[in-house]
Amino acid sequence: MTKLLVIAIAGISGCGKTSIVKSAAKHFACKCLHFDDYIDKNTYPQDMTQWFVDGADVNQIKTPRFAKAIRHHIKTSEGLLLVEEPFGTCRDEVSTLIDKTILLDVPLAICLSRVIERRLKRVSALNKGQVLKYLASYQDYLHQVYQSTFEQTRAVADTVINNNQCYDKAVTNIVEFINSVKEG
What we know:
Elements: E1 5-10, H1 17-28, E2 31-34, H2 48-53, H3 64-76, E3 80-84, H4 92-95, E4 100-105, H5 108-122, H6 128-156, E5 159-162, H7 167-183
Parallel strand pairs: 1-3, 1-4, 2-3, 4-5
């Protein structure tokens, strides 16, 4: 059996990871796994502000079911697996399972607007407090968390794709990168 190539699409919330992974998986007719599908109440540190003050160690973000799912695909599949992993190979839990990381680079303000738009589409007018709470957290510490984890991921990424450009161009650049990796 041929070794499975595992490519991570990384980036901060709102940078377009999910859309890119879905488009690339469709292009390559391959399977994909999404980080958010494996989040539970124990994934993130309880006090994110303190976590950031203590150095924003992404190894404290735990997704054992996600790592298990990737390992399962490595044992049972061939070809290509795309994983949406916000931190690329920065987390020890998944770092040895990922062959290459593509980091999506999008300005924080664009990401914030996408997250707000997404949340507004999901909540009723009565629940707008959730959006306001997110904005308060963003202003308080989240923007620094996103910037810090982005820089950590950039340091280990195999390539960085600007997803602030035309969406189709970003997908094309990712497809070209994956093809170059597959060709060796």
